[in-house]
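Task card 7
Instruction: Convert sequence to structure tokens.
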Amino acid sequence: MDKELMDIEGKDLDLVEAEFINIRQSTVRAVEGGHIELQQVGALSIDGERVEVTQGAALLMRGANLSLNQSIGLLTAGNVTNLNFSFSPVSVAASEIVANKSAVGIMAANEIHSNNNAAILMLGRNINGTVTTLLDWRSSLALGAVAGGIFGLFSLFRKR
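Output:
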């Protein structure tokens, strides 16, 4: 196969590098390329200009345009990130994040468009849509006060 186009199905791979990559039902250690499409793929690292993952899982995803559909990405970083029915503990975007019925731990972007998501922490200049948060400002203040009190109590016992 040439370095411009790779079409792979049902393999266990180490490193895949090409301009256009389409991988289905495989596992791969690292994927690097321009346009990457993955369906039912498990990967450690994905790095590309445009990345589309459907029913896949990855430890680290990085690219200018990321799109996750029914997928898990432990750390997603890109310019524009789209999450659709997906889970990402940490999602960071330079420009915007569009999330639809997804679960996100920490979401940070200039603009966040949300549609029925669950999140722990959202950081953004403009946040639009509906989000169910684990902590609001009152409960996070109470949690911080309790944690500070417990830490202070243990520090008193430790000095004696």
